[in-house]
Amino acid sequence: MRKFLFFPLLLLTVSLFAQHEKQDEAMLAKIRNEGLNHSQVMDIAFYLTDANGPRLMQSRGYFKAANWAKTTLGSWGLQQVSLEPWGHWGKGWELEKFYFAMTAPYYKPLIAFPKTFTPGTQGLRHASVVLLEATDSAGLMKYRGKLKDKIVLLLKNDSLSLGFSPDARRYTEEELKNMADYVPKAAAPAAPNKAYEASRTAANFLFQAKDFAKEEGALCMLSSSTRNSDGTVFVQNGTVYSPETPETFNDLAVAYEDYTSIVRLLQHHIPVELDLDLRTKIYAQDQQGYNVIGEIAGTDKKLKSQLVMIGGHLDSWQGATGATDNAAGSAVMMEAVRILKAVGYNPRRTIRIALWGGEETGLHGSRNYVRNHFEDTVTKKYNTAGDKLSVYLNLDNGTGKIRGLYLQGNKAARPIFEKWFEPFHDLGAGTLTLMNTGGTDHLSFDAIGLPAFQFIQDPMEYSSRTHHSNMDTYDHLSEADLKQAATIIASFVYDAAQRDEKMPRK
């Protein structure tokens, strides 16, 4: 009989959860008015991007933005505002000067960007280009002794397709319904992925070729892909940041059209010469990693020791100013706490905002924060302090408006969020999916059993144009979408801080 009673009991439980969500309509109206009609989110985004520049971890831009955020949060009346160290991270890198052009067979400025920790050229260098027509390490040997002071690149066998799909898009109702209807299934054995294996093979050979070129005394290595088209260059680097790591090799990500033009010239035996002037700087004085932390103190005698946390990562890659990844998320979270202060809200639980460092290189800021504050080092689950965390909410999927929430398999949380989303159905938000989503800082909390969630956002241009590219700039931010997101998150923070019970665990 029990198996027949389970479903009705589950429905009853869900119904009771929903009934317990008390919402002050007057306060929600104030939040909505402040967020939609008096927003400062774009001004915040300006200072995080244009005013402070790229925010590669441990660079001057990162510390400028972090200190600005700290000062700004304090000016709004937040308490316990600090740059909190989370442990050893390593050195920082910054680009100081870059000039790159073809000078023969004719002059042409080239679209490119240095990868992180590229050491530089010590002034203007003029070099001829060598095409490495090799597919394996044995094929590289024929270039032994021929690469000194040369710029090198590999032969490419792919080709650029014309783009018929829009850069920016929003989720369709069908896509959102499919998310909502998602039912977790037992993991099936992974099938062989030939495309993935081919890309890994190509990447490994690129590393081999770069190491070979470095050993041979080449000046620089060029790389590209079909994604690097239409003026957009996706650029990052997986270099280890330890001060003990040997100096890397000059390495440029180049626009596909420029790269293949050089290849074709060389294949037709027309010599190519390039000018390169690259100056960079290493920062190794302070090797601690830092997060920006601030609080709105709780006021309820019983609940003020409990926490509602929100966050997004502050660091970015170096190709632009990291607007959609993730100044957008940081600006929205800052705007959310500003809204709550502006409407005079005194929460029952303490509200804590975190702007994470080191996300781009492995969630370092949030992982170490969780380890330092909430994790039992023996069980790898949350400790007594972690038990006081009600919920963590994260934003890090570009500029697109919030369409719903990834529940990370937390079924008990669904009816609660359904209630919280009700006032925002008119703004296009409300989809809840049991899907897990990865790649960002809520995973640090989820990994030890704490309720942590990432919002579903419209894709916009994120994967096609801005993510880790030279186009990730302020102009690609959607003001209306960021206003909507900040308003919803401010409301959710209010709901979480006010409810009688903590959010349910999985």
Description of the structure:
The protein has 506 residues and is α/β, with parallel strands linked by helices. It folds into two domains: 11-89 and 287-498, Aminopeptidase; 93-172 and 188-283, 3-Layer(bba) Sandwich (Glucose Oxidase, domain 1), CATH 3.50.30. The protein contains 15 helices and 16 strands. Helix 1 (2-19) runs parallel beside helix 12 (414-421), helix 3 packs across helix 9 (323-342) and helix 9 crosses helix 15 (479-498).
Please tell me the total number of domains.
2
The structure class reads alpha/beta
CATH class of the largest domain: Alpha Beta
CATH topology of the largest domain: Aminopeptidase
Q: Total strand count, please?
A: 16
The poorly predicted ranges are 1-17
Order of strands, main sheet, comes to 1-10-12-11-13-16-14-15
Radius of gyration: 25 Å
The shape is elongated
